[in-house]
């Protein structure tokens, strides 16, 4: 019986591909997500995912953003089936102010697709997000989008991707022209050609097998000049870039590149077909105690995201749990490690595109939404009893800091509760100064300050005020020598604070003061993330 159970768990694991799409806003992430869902039959029409997007023009209108955050619960995870695989797409906000959300979501994926706009090339947010994936050695596929527009030369783009993103690229498809002259893509991975017709539908029978690029039939299809260019370029690719190597990709050392146009649904299927073949199944996860393998029969999982219900009358939240090992079952008692207590869940939810379904069981790689009345914090783990703390869910140094003051002394209890819960959701980070216990909120963008103020007022009936605090970075401190920590504590009390977990943090006013502190305390290491 055990063996049979084991087998079925393994086949569930092998079926799953859990990934995130990352890009700079406007590169086409939403459009690509939508096309993938269409292929999986998870949605019926284009436009269904659009509402998920935080539009550029709404950046100053945080109410609009909150509304969209509310909608985005439904699209936080989009699951669909394609060619016998269960694909879980984890949504990652592209908006810079929500970067921390995105970093955390990336801890729950097994691979990523990076979307780049052919005209804009590698942009700032792409760089930041790819850096996070690279440190985690997440396998990444690149999709160069908007080939129906004029953009950068293909080889220049590959250079840029290697230079700015530190990737080792391996083109698996190659464009024939671009913009007005865009004729289609040659699929290097499976040696065939697909011709482009703007806004045309793409179906399987449009693929033209070309076993030999020197064949005259190529000229009949795309014309002699384009055929010659293609032959030359493919020749160059074969000489300059390595052949695809599954192992190198799985280790994060090789990045396949595809070209296409998401809006025209062109080149997307090539990538998806390759993705389901090569993308890794749920991987083992590192915990402080040991490595946890998905095939272990005992269930484990961790919370990587908490989403508040936007309806103030229902203050419940949804905690998103990534299953790491074993089988998660509804109405079963599990161990909440941090709180040292048993919990069971009667309505665990899976998100199938825009539909929510209550599920009975879930497997490694799956993301389950758990209704939560305030029991969870980001990073919490659930197990069948074992004490496990999963690694890789760090906090990063915020970019902006402000003191938070109570503006209504009658409501200090509400304020404290509200701030605590919003921090647990990961909206921002709270630091408490060592010298005077004053509270500091740190965020990635200015937007969160408004969001916090608004939500405190509307959900917790509390009022807060901010006081500017020119601050450069928060650095977590460590040292092998306890005396060195004691020394910095006594000499730099004004600059020290505790983070949410009581870890010691140095608040640096500028890059220069940080450098000075590092020089003055050579035995102390200053880290820009809470995990080191
Ligand atoms: P994002 O989620 O990465 O922010 O990008 P999104 O998919 O929303 O795409 C950003 C814009 O780029 C959209 O136009 C979208 O239609 C367009 N786009 C996406 N893929 C392609 C493509 O292959 N070719 C071309 N030419 N455009 C593409 P928009 O005008 O901002 O929005 P909308 O009015 O079309 O909704």
Do you know the CATH architecture of the largest domain? 3-Layer(aba) Sandwich
Bound molecules: guanosine-5',3'-tetraphosphate
Strand order of the largest sheet: 27-24-26-25-29-30-28-31
Helix content: 25-40%
Termini separation comes to 42 Å
| Strand runs, count | 31
Shape: globular
In terms of quaternary structure, the protein is single chain
The CATH C-level class name of the largest domain: Alpha Beta
Largest sheet: 8 strands, antiparallel
Q: What fraction strand? A: 25-35%
* Contiguous helical run count: 14
Number of discrete domains: 3
Average pLDDT number: 87
The assigned structural class equals: alpha+beta
| CATH level-4 homologous superfamily of the largest domain | P-loop containing nucleotide triphosphate hydrolases
Q: How much is the radius of gyration in Å?
A: 25 Å
Low-confidence stretches: 51-60, 201-205
CATH topology of the largest domain: Rossmann fold
Structure description:
The chain is α+β, with helices and mostly antiparallel strands. It has 3 domains: 11-15 and 17-278, 3-Layer(aba) Sandwich (Rossmann fold); 285-383, P-loop containing nucleotide triphosphate hydrolases (Rossmann fold); 400-527, Alpha-Beta Plaits (2-Layer Sandwich). The protein contains 14 helices and 31 strands. The strands form 7 sheets. The protein has an 8-stranded antiparallel sheet. Helix 4 packs parallel to helix 5. The protein binds guanosine-5',3'-tetraphosphate (G4P). Guanosine-5',3'-tetraphosphate binds next to helix 2. Residues 23, 25-31, 53, 94, 145-146, 148-149, 261-264 line the site of guanosine-5',3'-tetraphosphate.
